[in-house]
Amino acid sequence: MHVVRLDRPWEDTDFLMQGFVIQDQSDIDALCRQCEVVYIEAKIETLAQHGKPSAPPKKIERRQEPKGLFSRFKRSKKEEPEPEQKKPGVKPVPTGIPDANTRVTYINKINTEKEIEVAKNTYSSAKQVVKNIMDGIRIGRTIDMEDTREAVSQVVDSVLRNKDALAWLSKIKNKDEYTAEHSLNVCILSATFARHLGHDEIEIQHVALCGLLHDVGKSKIPDEILNKEGRFTDEEFDIMRQHTTFGRDLLLALPKTDHVAIDVAHSHHERLDGSGYPRGLNASQIPYYAKLVSLVDCYDAITSSRCYDGARSSIEALDIIYKNQGVQFDKELALEFIKCIGIYPAGALVEFSNGEVGIVLSVDPESKLRPRVLLVRDSDKNPRKERIIDMKKIDLDSAGKPYTIVSELPNLSYGVDLREYLKKGLVVGDAQDAKVPMLEEQIKK
Amino acid sequence: MTDSGPAEKRSRQRLLCSDPFSGCTLNYDGTEYSAQSINYNQCGIGVFAMTRLPEQARCQLRFCYRSDEDNIEINALAAERVYSNETEVGHQYGFKFCLEEASAEVRARLIALEERLEQDAKTHRYGLFS
Fold this sequence. Notes:
The complex is a heterodimer. Chain A is of the alpha+beta class. Chain A folds into 3 domains: 2-74, no CATH class; 112-341, Hypothetical protein af1432, CATH 1.10.3210; 349-444, no CATH class. Helix content of chain A is 44%, strand content 11%. Chain A has 18 helices and 8 strands. In chain A, a hairpin with a 4-residue loop joins strand 4 (349-352) and strand 5. Chain B has a 6-stranded antiparallel barrel.
């Protein structure tokens, strides 16, 4: 049974958390001593009836003196203001897409080929930070917000220098590291999306932090569920869905917490039409950053492989987002997100009408339907001599017909692994002379 | 759970389901489930649902395309699940129609529906890019 509210302020009681699951009679006794009425969350009660723990079997903490988390939090705020409150005149968290007057326009300061080398290090160190957060929570450590903010800062710096390099790397996914990679990918794509929307740098840092921490509650889900191969039972799925509440509790317990990150961790599965969870909020109740992160979360979840499911293509994820604009997702944000990702994002695997398969190298923002593509499979899906085609110019196939893309495929289709092409030195992005000869040599070997 | 594996086996591209074609009802042994129709061709359909569907491979589908000019209804069409992608953000399923069990008239309606979606497609999917 999940206690969500008391008949008095939490800080007047000895409960550390603002909300907890009753574990045993001593918790009930403590409640009886201090309250006459308590409020419980019915959904959690239903889960408990399935015989599964509705929260990790961890004894709730209680303070000896009647000082709850809230009073500690209020004290810490007085003693050491949060970074955004240190500066006088800091503007509030945005509640929508920047308007034309406040919108910031960005250009790539460095080309993708150069940035990708830096981005590889940024990606791997940020992934390690996420793993440390997740592993640390499992053994009772709190989140190191200094490390977390530093990792986010590096991600945002890279996205501001070049929006494509980290996005490229986010396409290479290891199903064994899904949770850590997904958190990082949502951080990267949230920053990329916020840049696309014209948010300023501080706002991009903030939304990226929310993206990185949005699934932190999954560290409280037992490994045997998180890494289960095969379909979840209904009870396991219900436990998985509790990660939003766990995430809120974990972030709430931090001494220097971030209110918006708490909101996003708690609300990123809420949907405009009230069909989301855990609270079934409606459109006006869902914070703006949670609406933004929920789109990115949906996109990355659908395009990722898991222990139990294969990845779907980018276009299938965009189809779902498009069909749910104004239903589950904010309409304006959904359409902007589709524009941000594009039909054929760099790194996408595409199939042509003649059966050949290629990797999208770059897309001209003015001509998003005609990308530059590296052909890697022939019409029988066998490895072919690599060739770059630029669809902006009329490139013809061996039959003298113009190349036409018919579909986008998930990574690994027909044995094409993006990771291998990156390792081989495939030039990504905007350079005109990709290192194709080097690839051709390797194919010959 | 999925047949998608690394290789995409779909022989025809699926078209984005336009506004006149948004819902799909799936019948599993008499129990009905609602889902959103996402993409379609005359051989199969992709749907998305917030509630998980039963693990059973076969079901019967009901959907319709309804516009001012057209009304194409499909009822009790046998279909077989070819992939599922069940995540915390929602559940995505692909179904292949059991065309060999469908009448010639139903098959003609499935083709007509594909043609309508082709017409509905603007310059490109989503109509956002040129």
